[in-house]
Amino acid sequence: MRSEAMPAPDRSERVGALIDRVMGSGLSKGLNANQRATVAWHAANGDRERSHTTRVFLKKPRVDGADPIICVYVDNHSFLTDLNANKDLYLSRLANWGFYVSGIEFGVDRAAHRTSKGGARKAGAKAKRAATPRLSAEQERYVQELVSKVPDSLKESISKAITASLLADGEK
Fold first, then answer.
1. 0.90 cut: is pTM over it?
2. 101, 91 in Cβ contact below 8 A?
3. In terms of Cα–Cα distance, which of 41, 65, 64, 40 is closest to 53?
4. pLDDT classification of 3: cutoffs 50, 70, 90
5. C-alpha 114, offset from chain centre
6. Beta strands 53-59; 69-74: pairing state
7. Would you say 113 and 63 are in contact if contact means Cβ atoms under 8 Å apart?
């Protein structure tokens, strides 16, 4: 007697076959090889890899008749070190997804590295300073009253802490 409460046996399926069945192979017909490589890289990996990746493209293989080499550029050197340490893992993820390459090369995208260190951070800091809320005059008097009996060497740090606490309470 079969019970409906018993789960059906787990039927494993390759990720590439499942995605092909869901999305259809017709979707990839309009993409060039580099675009398919980008889709494969983003699909085969997680959020961390996707957030640091700036460019993906294919390079000719070193040996005629072999699969191409995928080149992945990221935004910083520390993440590049992580990727290089796990090359085999990324090759197997791509193969499991159904995208076969003969090798994988990682590099730092210097243009993205300069952008993240330069104007984008400075603009973000200016916007943050402009949006910083201020204490009301009554709150400032309250802070001055609280720190009036504190030694001078501690007044500044304690008033900053109280101010931050009041501003945090005001945002809630």
1. no
2. yes
3. 41
4. low
5. 17
6. antiparallel
7. no
